[in-house]
Specification:
Structural class: mainly alpha
Helix content: 40-55%
Oligomer: single chain
Largest sheet: none
Mean pLDDT: 95
Order of helices and strands: HHHHHH
Number of strands: 0
Length: 111
């Protein structure tokens, strides 16, 4: 599986938070913070937009580090990704991602 495929199957390589972190791009951080604040109806500041990728050693956004139920589940079960779980097709937590992004499920299946 590609290193940048997150535990949930999202492609972190294309994530603007990871790109902003990699390039130390404060303008992109501001853009992402504004968008994510609107999408999540929460205050997300540019300082929160720092992430190296879900499965890559390094900094994570506060959501990914502390609140993502999918990431917590994978870590707790000592899996690499949700692909290692027998509930891959039926997991309600994972459906929060895959229902709106079927490519994430394909990434897990084809990893």
């Amino acid at each position: 599986m590609k290193d940048y495929i997150g535990m949930c199957g999202l492609d972190c390589e294309t994530c603007e938070a990871r790109i902003a972190t990699e390039n130390n791009d404060d303008e992109l951080r501001k853009k992402v913070a504004k968008l994510w604040s609107e999408l999540n109806n929460a205050e997300i500041t540019p300082e929160m937009i720092n992430c190296t990728g879900c499965r890559i050693v390094g900094v994570k956004t506060p959501f990914c580090a502390s609140y993502c139920q999918i990431r917590q589940c994978v870590v707790e079960k000592r899996f690499i990704t949700c692909a290692d779980c027998k509930e891959l097709e039926t997991c309600e937590k994972l459906k929060m991602i895959t229902s709106g992004n079927p490519q994430a499920l394909e990434n897990l299946k084809n990893g």
